[in-house]
Amino acid sequence: MLKLNKEIIFFLKNKYLFLFLASGIVNDEGFWLIGVKNSDLKILDDKTLLECHRKELIGYESAKDILNAINLNLENLMNDLKSNNFLLDEPPIGISFNIPLNFLENIFDFWLEKYKDKEIWEICLGLLKIRRRVSLYNLIKSESIKGESKKFAMEIENLHKYQPNSIKNKVSNEPMWK
Fold it and tell me: Alpha-carbon distance 18 to 36, whole Å?
């Protein structure tokens, strides 16, 4: 009977993951971390994490899919900030503390919620992939996107709206010769 319980526990641990959003600190530098762990204790026992702000127990494949969407959303956001010359602190791991918690919570919650409906998830994920190459506002303005897709496109654009209060990077390279 003991062997069966260990097999069930092993199966459950590998079938479900905790998708979480936490704050942490390494070498006196703060960061946000969105990730997955297969045990609640692994989140609590992680000495670099200070506080867990979101934690959802979901299926293994679902957790991976949602985390990939969140990471793509954040990658798009970081690329936008970089192309607009905004500087963010680079933490040793995770996401810059320059991005407000409520903004990250909105991204986390959006993708978690959209995953509940497969059709909506596919639409939103497709829009997010398009957003990697082009602003969805242009497609909305040109009326290339209509109906429910338009509504989701506007929501996804809102997940990319963050701009830091800091002054843009105005450092320019001096010419090699003078």
Answer: 5
Name the token pair of 96: 């810059």
pLDDT at res. 173: 53
Extract the tokens encoding 43.
Answer: 């989140």
Give the Cα separation of 33 and 36 in Å (integer). 10
Q: Domain limits of the chain? A: 2-158
CA–CA dist 98, 31 (Å, integer)? 9
The pLDDT assigned to 117 comes to: 97
H or E element in which residue 173 lies: none
- Please give the span between the terminal C-alpha atoms of the chain, in angstroms, as a whole number: 82
Q: What is the mean pLDDT of each run of 10 residues along the chain (178 residues)?
A: 48 77 92 91 86 94 97 95 87 92 97 97 96 90 89 95 69 53
- Size (the chain), residues: 178
Rounded CA-CA distance 86/165 in Å is 9
Planar angle of CA 90, 94, 99, nearest 5 degrees: 65
User: At a CB cut-off of 8 Å and minimum separation 6, what does 28 contact?
Assistant: none
Q: How confident is the model at residue 3, as a pLDDT?
A: 47
